[in-house]
Amino acid sequence: MTSGGAVTTLYSFCVQTGCTDGAVPNSRLVLGPAGRFYGTTYSGGTNNDGTIFALSPAGGLRTLHRFIGSDGFDPGELIRGTDGNFYGTTEFGGNFSCPNDCGTIFKITSQGVLTPVHHFDGNDGSNPIGGLVEAGKGTFYGTAAYGGANGDGTIFTLSLPRASIPSVKPPAASADSFQP
Asked: 135-143 long-range contacts, Cβ below 8 Å, gap at least 24?
């Protein structure tokens, strides 16, 4: 926004063929390293499953991850953990044997290395659309809209051992690498 109150568009989604840069950004932005903003799109990307992106203050967008279903789809808000990484949930995907594609919890670095942290199975919750909060180093809390003992949702906690989480290699660099 300018000092006069005018809004300036920094980036318009779905400018790439097939919306590989993402579409429907429906979560708040999180400030990260080098003054970049990090966020998610609910759709677009691979198979229309959503993306995670970084945006420079000048409007250059870099797609960090394109969800493919097995790592989740339809991501929600990101938070920045005390370890400097970003954490979030996907409403669906992950455990395809779950009747509602129960959703996931993931970690992603500012360079785009995504680590699946948890796949919901319905018993521990399903469809975690409420996001996460970190209460201490590696201890996260959140809500899942469905699942649990009565099928009406859960409040969950997850403690992560920092050194033992496997990583998934980020996608190869593409044309969407912080071009203003």
From this structure: 136/82, 137/82, 137/83, 137/162, 138/81, 138/82, 138/83, 138/162, 140/87, 140/105, 142/89, 142/105
| Entry pTM | 0.86
Q: Give tens-digit pLDDT for 101-136.
A: 899 999 999 999 999 999 999 999 999 999 999 998
Cα–Cα separations (whole angstroms), residue 50 to 69, 140, 147: 9, 23, 23
Angle at 68 between CA 65 and CA 69, to 5 degrees: 130
SS (H, E, C) 11-38: CCCCCCHHHCCCECCCCCCEECHHHCEE
Specify whether the CB–CB gap between 147 and 122 falls below 8 A: yes
Helix/strand/coil for 70: coil
Structural domains for the chain: 17-160 (2.120.10.30)
SS3 at position 44: coil
Query: Taking a C-beta distance cutoff of 8 angstroms, is the pair 83, 131 a contact?
Result: no
Largest CA distance in the chain: 53
Which residues 6+ apart lie within 8 Å of 92 measured at CB?
A: 72, 73, 74, 100, 101, 102, 103, 127
- d(CA 40, CA 23) in angstroms, rounded, equals 9
